[in-house]
Design a protein that fits this description.
- By secondary structure, the chain is α/β, with parallel strands linked by helices.
- The protein has a single domain, classed as Gcn5-related N-acetyltransferase (GNAT) (Aminopeptidase).
- Helix content is about 30%, strand content about 20%.
- Helix 1 packs across helix 2 and helix 5 crosses helix 6.
- The protein starts with a strand and ends in an 8-residue tail after the last strand.
- The chain is globular and about 45 Å long.
- The protein has seven helices and nine strands; from the N terminus they run βααββααββαβαββαβ.
- A hairpin with a 4-residue loop joins strand 7 and strand 8.
- Bound molecules: coenzyme A (COA).
- Coenzyme A (COA) binds next to strand 5, helix 5 and helix 6.
């Protein structure tokens, strides 16, 4: 059974490995251990919000969120990484373009509209004053489908002091289902994205958490 709790310093390597294995990327496509070690390290120091799922002392899933303005402070704290990110962005902008292979085209999967409203969202990814952004959630492949990510989403809402706003591809049906199971509300955000919103929630337990043992709440990130 997975235990869900706030990240601790001993979790940094495991979180980084989990995020890389789940193909987590930031800053327009940057990935790798160095990036995620820095993100997880900052989270362990309380500069970002991160909850982890631990099973048999292994990090099997993690969810990370940050203030909408965290990028600048992050880049200043990690100058070598910043140079790599800049290099990546320059290559993206001026390098030769490989055709992007994606199956994320065509009509949106009808299933998402069981969970996603077509109404105007109260906030969007680009306009979410006073909210933090949920940046990435990943569950290791062999642990998927057990509502671990849903439990993490619920735990994030309990640990956060501000509303949380996430953006996911509208083609990522599993992530939409997981957000729903974690109690997040969803709206379309543009043509092919979904905005998922959750307000801080100290008490509620969803069915998502009945499958995971949730560690006692830790103090909130300042
Ligand atoms: C999206 C992701 C985090 C979900 O993790 P998870 O722990 O498996 O998710 P959960 O078990 O909480 O819930 C997912 C829902 O999809 C279902 N599901 C999960 N994996 C599935 C699979 N392989 N096939 C079919 N359904 C699946 C679950 O049963 C659940 O649906 P339900 O509530 O109707 O039962 C995981 O698939 C992942 O890491 N993907 C790669 C990274 C990613 O896309 N992240 C999301 C964007 S930030």
């Amino acid at each position: 059974m997975a235990v869900i709790r706030r990240i601790e310093p001993r979790d940094v390597e495991g979180v980084a490995a989990c995020m890389v294995a789940c193909k987590g990327s930031m800053f327009g496509g940057v990935t790798g251990m160095r990036l995620w070690r820095a993100m997880a390290g900052d989270a362990a120091k309380g500069q970002l919000l991160c909850c982890v799922a631990v099973e048999d002392e292994k990090i099997v899933a993690a969810c990370i969120a940050a203030s909408r303005h965290f990028h600048w402070a992050f880049l200043l704290r990690h100058p070598v990484l910043s140079a790599e990110i800049l290099w990546h962005r320059l290559k993206e902008k001026f390098g030769s373009k490989e055709p992007v292979q994606t199956d994320r085209t065509g009509p949106l999967p009808e299933e998402i509209f069981k969970y996603v409203s077509r109404e105007k969202p109260p906030m969007t990814w680009n306009h979410c004053p006073g909210a933090d952004r949920a940046l990435f959630t990943g569950t290791l492949h062999e642990y998927r489908g057990r509502h671990i990510a849903a439990g993490l989403k619920q735990a994030m809402a309990r640990e956060s002091e501000r509303p949380l706003v996430g953006r996911i591809s509208a083609y990522n049906v599993i992530s939409v289902r997981s957000n729903h199971a974690g109690g997040w509300k969803m709206w379309l955000d543009g043509d092919s994205n979904v905005v998922a919103i959750k307000y801080p929630d100290r008490g509620a337990q969803t069915s998502a958490e009945t499958n995971t043992q949730v560690a006692a709440a830790q103090p909130n990130v300042k």
